[in-house]
Specification:
The chain is mostly helical. The chain has five helices and no strands. Helix 1 runs antiparallel to helix 5, helix 2 runs parallel beside helix 3 and helix 2 packs parallel to helix 5.
C-alpha cells in the first residue's frame, strides 16, 4: 500500500498522538500512590487509547467510521482492511469504560487488576496499529515505550 498523502498523514498523526497521550496518562496514574489511583479513569484512558489508535488506522485507509466508542464495531470495520484486527478482539472488553467510567450512576468499581489489564490491552492495540501504519508507509515520530 502506498503511503497516505500529507493531509491524511497529518490526521493520522493527530489520532495516534492523542492515543499516546491517553496511554501515557493511564500508565502514569498506575504509578500514583495506592490510595490515590483512579482505576476507573485509568481504564477510561486505556479505552480511549485503543479507540483512537484504531480510528487513526481507519483514517490512514480512507475508511469512514461512525461516531462511536464501541471498539467491537471499530474492529469489525477495521477487519475489512486488516487481517490483524481479529487478534485484537480482547480489546472489545475496553468499550464499557468509555461510558461507565465517566458518568455517575453508570459506573461500576474498577479494580487494580482490571485497570492494569486495560492498560496492557491498550498497549497491545497501540503496538499492532503502529506496526500496521509503518507497513502502510506512515512515518510516525518515535515515541518511548510506555
Amino acid at each position: 500500500m502506498k503511503p497516505p498523502n500529507e493531509e491524511v498523514a497529518h490526521k493520522v498523526r493527530e489520532w495516534v498522538a492523542r492515543a499516546d497521550e491517553d496511554l501515557r496518562l493511564a500508565t502514569y496514574a498506575l504509578k500514583m500512590r495506592r490510595k490515590a489511583r483512579p482505576y476507573r479513569l485509568i481504564a477510561y484512558h486505556a479505552q480511549q487509547c485503543a479507540e483512537k489508535c484504531i480510528k487513526g488506522y481507519l483514517v490512514s485507509c480512507g475508511v469512514d467510521f461512525p461516531y462511536t466508542h464501541n471498539i467491537s464495531l471499530l474492529l469489525e470495520i477495521c477487519s475489512k482492511q486488516a487481517d490483524w484486527a481479529q487478534a485484537l478482539r480482547d480489546a472489545e472488553e475496553l468499550s464499557p469504560y468509555a461510558i461507565t467510567a465517566r458518568y455517575p450512576g453508570e459506573d461500576e468499581p474498577v479494580t487494580k487488576e482490571q485497570a492494569q489489564k486495560a492498560v496492557e490491552t491498550a498497549q497491545k492495540v497501540r503496538k499492532q496499529v503502529w506496526t500496521a501504519l509503518a507497513q502502510h508507509g506512515m512515518d510516525l515520530p518515535a515515541v518511548p515505550e510506555q
